[in-house]
Batch of 4 targets.
Target 1
Amino acid sequence: MTEIFDSVKAFGNGFSTTFKHLFKKPITEQYPEYKRPLPDRSRARIVLTCDPDGKERCVACYLCSAVCPVTCISMQSAEKSDGRRYAKWFRINLGRCIYCGLCEEACPTSAIQLTPDFENTKLDILSLVFEKKDLLINSCGKDKDYNFYKYTGIKTNSGDKGTHAFEKKPVNVKSNLP
Ligand code: SF4
Ligand code: SF4
């Protein structure tokens, strides 16, 4: 008896929701004429951002590539004469990407970021293989002020170790000897 009562109650609950919506004005969004603004944290098209000084952020550390669960990121690292590392080439196969955001989480320089731009469907699957020139944007993206080389104690032409904001002078390891 209790089971019959529970079943009738469950049906009643389900149909009450249906009936409530029968008398409401339907909401129809006319996509693509109207595009609902998505939050900044939405995970879609991937970009490579630049530092506030306009230089490439990516230091080709391979962390995003290592963490990617579908191994769709590949690159080759190189170093400039001023000491900055960079990716000689950088490739993401967006046809395989599952937009999990792990690459963005792993990136120490805030270079790789996912954006709300979800309109990336293509008939030709190979055109979803994005090269560095397709990924690089002239903007800091979400992290406007962060500059990896100003916080991480790496010597470049723009400053020596320990000379940047919030950095301490390098430790003299010999001073720790007994
Ligand atoms: S969003 Fe996920 S699947 Fe896509 S490239 Fe980044 S780590 Fe790989
Ligand atoms: S995008 Fe970030 S995590 Fe990936 S190689 Fe460049 S610096 Fe490293």
Note: The mean pLDDT is 90.
Target 2
Amino acid sequence: MHEMSYVVRFVNQAIDALKDEEGKASKVRVSVGEMTDVLPEYLHKYYPQAVKGTILEGSELEVEMVPVRVICGGCGSEYHPCRENKYLCPSCGDGNGKVVAGRDVVLEQIEISDEH
Ligand SMILES: [Zn+2]
């Protein structure tokens, strides 16, 4: 399961981001790109194991799905590649787009509670 490696990575990023914080993390929000094939249910499943014994233990994980976005190499417009447009730019038909969103799991936000 490649989900575990994503969990380990964003958990480490979050721990790193929290090392100067006084409070305790109450919620961790991540976005999951459509292209990653990551199933949110696995993130939720592995999260408690990954944060056990860390500053994140007991925090809630929130997962948001993000669709793939591509910037067209031909005309510069942004589009969502899908079967309907044959994964090509709907404006000019170009296929050399640059993926700008939706191909990674990204740590978006950490909510801190002041309770000690
Ligand atoms: Zn185009």
Note: The pocket of zinc ion is lined by residues 72, 74-75, 77, 89, 91-92, 94 (CB under 6 Å).
Target 3
Amino acid sequence: MIRSSNPSQAAIEFAADLFRQARRAVVLTGAGLSTSSGIPDFRSEGTGLWSRDEPLEVASLNTFRIAPERFFHWFRPLASQIFYAQPNPAHFAMSQMEAAGCIQSVITQNIDALHQKAGSKNVIEMHGSMRTLTCTQCYHRVESLPYLSPYVEKGEIPHCPKCDSVLKPDVILFGEQLPQSAWLQAQRDARNCDLMMVAGSSLEVLPVAGLPVQALDRGAHLIIVNNSPTYLNVRADVTILENVADIIPAIAERTLNG
Ligand SMILES: [Zn+2]
């Protein structure tokens, strides 16, 4: 009885109702989803990464071109956390909902591939991923796994097996264009969905932060689960200001078994 008077419980049930009624639900995820997997949001002030260096400068395409060793030195703690990270209950809950046909696709701002590790199949990576590296000279692309361990463990900068130039992780740096195919697919899904759930994103990084507006403008419902308010909370059907790792599994449970 206590739980029924809890506003987040009512919100969870309303969110599950929206998922059950939806035909084409998509989810937009951000850094807040992976903090429960131990990966800091490097864009947020107050994280160790921000205080050590200025990400806008060191994680830029320009710095990578001029001084890749600076980028690799800065990126190493984050790469290490990503390398060892495991999906959390929110990742697994979304994967179960996708398998049950309740989620069509996941659009993510994260580069950690934890959605795929949790079993999600249709993942659109807006900021690239750590799974591959591309040569800065000859554009040869390699799987990152054999290179990540020596880099994370010993700080060895990855070099191209063909021409020995520096390999760049296929993550989108500041000053770099979003991958076009991912962006087109994300826009298509946002415009065609009848429900969008934003999970663990503060909707501060454009143009991805504008995707929910494209969904809303075509009549889709909007659920926002994030531990801080976003600019779109006023337009959402449901907002839950709590940790996604607690709330998403509860929504999935109610959607699949409620
Ligand atoms: Zn090369």
Note: The first helix runs from residue 7 to 21.
Target 4
Amino acid sequence: MSKTSITSQGNAIRTDSLRSVIALACAESRHLLHVLYALQRQFLHISDAALREVAAYLDIPISQVDAVVEFYSFLHKSPRGRFDIMFSNCTSCGDPELLRLLCQRLDVVEGESRADGLVSIDQTSCIGMCDHGAALLVNGTPIAHLDAGMIERIAILIETERPLADWPAELFVVTGNIRRAGLLLNDGLAAGDGLRAMLACGATGTLGEVIQSGLRGRGGAGFSTGMKWQFCREERGRARYVVCNADEGEPGTFKDRVLLHSHADAVFEGMTICAAVIGAKQGFLYLRGEYRYLLPQLQMVLVRRREMGLLGTGILGKIGFDFDIEIAVGAGAYICGEESALIESLENKRGIPRNRPPFPVTHGYLGQPTVVNNVETFAAAAHIALRGSAWFRKSGTDESAGSKILSVSGDCAKPGIYEYPFGVSIRQVLDDCGAQDVQAVQIGGPAGTLIGNAEFDRRLCFEDLSTGGSIMVFGEKRDLLAVIRNFAHFFAHESCGFCTPCRVGTTLLRKRLSKIAAGRGTQYDLDEMKRLAALVKHRSHCGLGQTASNPVLDAMHRFPHIFEQRLAQSDFEPYFDLDAALEEARQVTHRNDAAAHLE
Ligand SMILES: Cc1cc2nc3c(=O)[nH]c(=O)nc-3n(C[C@H](O)[C@H](O)[C@H](O)COP(=O)(O)O)c2cc1C
Ligand code: SF4
């Protein structure tokens, strides 16, 4: 007889139902996040019984499955609503007013499920829709271009319990928004062209071309792609792996979304070329959970490529050239974009960054040599295999060959995707996207650099301002301190918690900024914030902590007035407002005379 377990809403879930969902999910992929997602979709949460069943089925310790569920913000141990809404809280694709409006309209407390289980509403970090205005995810599917009218439509659809599949299709339209195409996006790369060129030139010759091209990683750090491939190829191991990093969690970045939507063949082609060069049989595309809506389409591209002999065994008829790609979908953790955390996630663990060295090229997935590259890097590599290094080097600067695809958002008339040769000035980008009266530009997302208009002639390239792709524009009317607070909140929320300087430091930074914004900060707070920001930057374990205080430090350096104009005039103010805390007591005792106040 099948046992049952009781959910916190009192519903019984039969063990055989759990097992059949797990078995069905495992028939597609045994990746833990995939199985947990399937369970949550069916039962709206991961119950203790589900944890036990998954652990038994996949032969993983329960403690590991439990830790994974706790770690990823898209997984929940208590039931979500049948319509689970997550509002982006990014400065470009979020709008707290619309979030409040929907909560009010549906009578939902933010962060909770409504008592009847119909709907839950929460916030989430940037969902990569920054060129589409305010946006949310409903059961994981994005809806953008939100305004009060759209909120009302969504509320009605939920109240009338219209199944998501029957919601008007136009609500879900996400466009490519390519405003300026260059080397890669002008693309005439037909599926298989890059691979054929690689086979004609040979794996070693192609590696030479990639090295010669000067291609540097587009995920942010800018390491030489050819050298990375060469180190991996030279490393001894039982197997080698290719991983495409499509986690794209940096607020304001959405260019990988567009590449995967419109140029997936080039990305998969680049991965397959890399596999031939390093001798890998297996590849993974790690897709951020927010882009799950792209999954069916990407799976179709993989199926087509297998049918065309571009994946599988004996690719393009070459004996021994065997390679295939699996897509793993994340579950709402920015830190999983860090390559070693990503690999941990692929290995069914929490996304905690590893100690480096060793680097993934020597000890990556399952401890074996692994190349991790960004989506755009693989697409560029496919083009280089086809057209050669000289073609690529013709664009860009000495140390930054080729082009960069930018995600432009914020206060501008034409947000979207812009591809330029490296070396383009910020001023040019601002002119092209119709930005006027610009106060500041955040280059490379919150982890990058904040500059003011005195620096708009600086250039986008590794020699000057490097960026993974995010350009956020802030007009003169923006409250820049609110922007910095938003970024501080982002880092405090996304810190994986592994090391103290980042876990505690990011929260303290956020709190001190709130104190200053509330008009309770003093010069002492500014000095403390600077000290703390330096500590977080220099003492944190991984790139997240090492860059988390950049917005605060940049803003203090370039825009000191946004802090100074809010300072209280005393030497010291406690975090806690004692007088305000006594308000409840004053009301209970019906006193509001001078003696009932501290000041
Ligand atoms: C907190 C953090 C988040 C990151 N997120 C991404 C990401 O979303 N996509 C990406 O390609 N690289 C990301 N990176 C950089 C990766 O660790 C890695 O350097 C990159 O994937 C290598 O590919 P590339 O050489 O092609 O740039 C992130 C790094 C850190 C520290
Ligand atoms: S720096 Fe932050 S994100 Fe990185 S390991 Fe430490 S706590 Fe985790």
Note: The mean pLDDT is 95.
